[in-house]
Amino acid sequence: MSIEAYKELKNIFSQASISSDIEGILHWDMSTMMPPNARQQRANQLAFMAKLKHELISDTYVSDLVAKVDIKSLETKDKANFTEMKREHLFLSALPGDLVESLSKASATCEGKWQEAREQSEFAIVKEPLKELLNLTKEEATILGKKLNCSPYEALIQKYEPLAQVEKITSVFNDLKEFLIPSIDTIIEKQKNDTVLPIIEKVSSKTQYEIAESLMKTVGFDFTRGRLDKSEHPFCGGATDDVRITTRYNERDPFSSLEGVMHETGHAMYELGLPKEWQHQPAGRSRGMAMHESQSLLIEMQITRSFAFKKFLSYLLNNSFGLKGKEWSEDNLYALGTRVNKTYIRVEADEVTYPLHIMLRFNMEQMLLANSLQIEDIPSIWNEEYKKLFGIDVDNDINGCLQDIHWYAGLIGYFPTYSLGALTAAQFAYTLRKEIPHLDADIEEGKFSILISWLRKNIHEKASFFSTNEVLEQVTKSPLNAKYFKEYITNRYL
Predict the structure, then answer these.
(1) What is the pLDDT of residue 50?
(2) Low-confidence ranges of the chain (pLDDT < 70)
(3) Among 43, 274, 327, 409, which residue has the least CB neighbours within 10 Å?
(4) Around Cβ 244, how many Cβ atoms within 10 Å?
(5) 442 by DSSP, 3-state: which?
(6) Exposed, middle or buried: residue 8 (CB in 10 Å: 0-12, 13-18, 19+)?
(7) Residue 347: what pLDDT?
(8) What domains lie within the chain, and their CATH numbers?
(9) Are 266 and 299 in contact (CB under 8 A)?
(10) How many other C-beta atoms lie within 10 A of the C-beta of residue 265?
(11) Hey, how many other C-beta atoms are within 10 angstroms of the C-beta on 48?
(12) What is the pLDDT of residue 232?
């Protein structure tokens, strides 16, 4: 009976996974191609799919099946799969169906208003939809917090990173902050004497797309199972075997788009590298967003900002796209890619200042959940917190609280995973470079196959069969430790 119950659970969770795939394509279309006046109907469609998935997984029938399964009777990988089933069932069964539906509808509506607010750089446009979404999110957080025996905010983080603890994240962030604040000023002062030629030549959106496509193919992205499009905010989405990434173009700053593409390609390669035999099962999915961000940041920061990559990139731009001159030389591209500046925009920040952008959001999210920050005060508190960290006044909302989609899409609790991912990426990269001593030589020649094979074997194929820390222990012989990131920053910049 135990095995039969488990087989039935596999069937139910497979159906739920397919419904998530449908949601993924609907979200992608909403962000890329959907006409603006279709938004209300799309919100209804997404709410319907969210409700359908919730009903599938939260049903008391699933509870009965879970109770019938003797985990000891299962093979090792099936044990991990069953554990993930129980976790997902716990999350969804804790939430009323009407709340899940309302959250989905409110997030789709709010995201649309956010796009309008960005166009006019006016937070007031999205204030009311955000208030509704946040109230629903607080309700969700309170329910999950009680169910998981943790704080409401910690419960939201655990939606994206299982077993994450606010206390540990705070400790790591404080450690990083102590290191970064003085280091940033030292690096900026040190770089003042560097000769850096700005990119003056405009690069068309069409050419940027072609460059991005070429690099994605070089890394190993499979365009028969994915595509690249344009959106207001870069993301990686889509469905199983249909991984869709997006970027946005600035003809005066082609590297903004390029770095975004490489970041999202890191995400995509992870999704495309998950074990096919476990598709549509909980254990076959990616292992939380800290691991996901480690894969994007490893490609974007550790690899594409290296001198070896800039050497390859310079050759490609010179010979395939006619971008010649000293400003396109490997030395100048490296200098541009490792320039440390205090900037407004998180997704355009260098890797040294980037964690401070996350800390700002992490602190504000806690304030929002604790009701010590009201919706209407978000712009002013954002600007104050930014000034404390960077010493710069924010000039408008689009450079401040409207720059990211996350809060307006209901993704509170997601931001900390970016910096956890950066730390994880640095730790993986340390081991990676020890085990592949010729890595830089390969990258200079545009050879990524050995790198991707290493990631496939050590990370991608492990999916959710192990926790993030278990994978780190297996690969690096150490739990998550900020020392690797600090050593990496010291070696590259100090």
Answers:
(1) 94
(2) none
(3) 327
(4) 24
(5) helix
(6) middle
(7) 86
(8) 2-162 (1.20.58), 168-493 (1.10.1370.30)
(9) yes
(10) 29
(11) 15
(12) 86
Asked if residue 128 lies in contact with residue 144, where contact means CB atoms within 8 angstroms, the answer is: no
pLDDT digit string, tens, across residues 174-231: 999 999 999 999 999 999 989 899 999 999 999 999 999 999 999 999 999 999 999 9
Per-residue confidence (pLDDT) for residue 1, from 0 to 100: 77
Q: Say if CB 117 and CB 397 are below 8 A apart.
A: yes
Q: Radius of gyration over alpha carbons of the chain, in Å? A: 22
Reading the block at residue 471, the tokens are 């994978």
Tokens of 407: 């809060």
Query: What's the length of the chain?
Result: 494
CA dist 92 → 18, 58, 69, 80, 283 (Å): 16, 5, 19, 19, 17
pLDDT score, position 393 = 97
Residue 396 in tokens: 């408008």
What are 193's two structure tokens?
């004497």
* Edge-to-edge strands, sheet with 226-230: 226-230, 242-247, 236-239
**Rounded (5°) CA angle 439-442-446:** 130
Residue 350 has which token pair?
A: 């260098």
Phi, psi (rounded to 5 degrees) for 229? -135, -175
Least Cα distance to 234 among 188, 273, 197, 267 occurs for 267
Q: Six-digit token pair at 337?
A: 């890619």
DSSP string, 115-169: HHHHHHT-GGGGHHHHHHHHHHHHHHHHHHHHHHTS-HHHHHHHHHSTT--HHHH
Identify the H or E element spanning 237.
Answer: strand 236-239
The dihedral through the CA atoms of 228, 232, 234, 238 has a sign that is negative
